Amino acid sequence: MKVLVRVFGTVLLLWLIFSRVNFSHLLNSFSSMNPLYWLAAFGLLVFTQVLSSQRWRILARAVGFEGGLGLYISYFFIGMFFNLALPTSVGGDVVRAWYLGYRSPGGPVQNRRSKAFLTVFSDRFSGVLVLVAIAVIATWASPTELPAWMKGTVYLIGAGAVASFAFLPLIAKFGDRFTKIKVVLNSAKLCFGNIGVLASTTAMSMWVQFANISIMVLVGMGLGLDIPVPYYFVMVPLVTLMTMLPISLGGMGLREGATVLMLTPLGIEPATAVALSLLNFSVYVVCGLLGVFFYLGARANPGALASSEQYSNNDQFSNNEEASDGNPFSDHSGQRRAG
User: Fold this and answer.
1) What are the boundaries of each domain within the chain?
2) Which pTM value belongs to this model?
3) What is the pLDDT of residues 37-53, one digit of tens each?
4) What is the pLDDT of residues 102-151, one digit of tens each?
5) How far apart are CA 198 and CA 83, in angstroms?
């Protein structure tokens, strides 16, 4: 049912957008793109994904996982590929958590599965918080006059992020009553209770978000758009947050519509805004497709799944799972699905 809602939402959003777009202007915008700027954006994104993999590795090592950077890069790109293949923008996060929990080498890790999902959640959560902080600061310091609705939206999201921390003591208070929540809380303390881990992952999150904004800047420059650079630091976070709404497939339609909405105050026509959005997204699509090679490599050389001794009683595999070929989406009876 959820997938059908997303499909309907995607179709409706795309119809609303493209029914108002001049296709000849859209094609002209595509043809005006300087490919060197696109390639620069692609190179920056690949480097950023490697850095994101290292950030994830730091969080994973804090809760007891092992493995070199190459392993985390492989799992990260596999996750990027499944972000494109699955009907949700976080499906790839579930996949890489599965790989970390069930495929990573090393010694026994208590509550391995729960901790694996926590590392991915912490990785994503850290990035979102930094993204919101950048948007708030950019809105406050913007030399370009922003529409009142845009300022209000950014400040409201910022206030919501701050308010979310008020619930943490409440969660901690009742967490001891539930084993799984207690595991997550204890693991979170390991991830963020260490000043060194917190400082390094936050710094990396800042770089990643600045790079994501810079990718859009490069694409905009390649199209020859006259958009003030500080404006991107407000627009990109808002567009990114909009794509997380669970009403379309992978943010399709939301991404383009939000970009049109953000660029309307600058007098940029919808066709050009859609071209900017699609070309920016194409950078992520091509980068995500690199994950196919990592995925095929993992299937060709699956290695051994972590032995049952590595899992706590709550996280042990069934016989069917231990015999898995390493594919979280196989149809073997009794096997857990990553999605």
Assistant:
1) 2-15+35-322
2) 0.79
3) 999 999 999 999 999 99
4) 877 665 556 677 788 888 888 888 888 888 999 999 999 888 788 888 88
5) 26
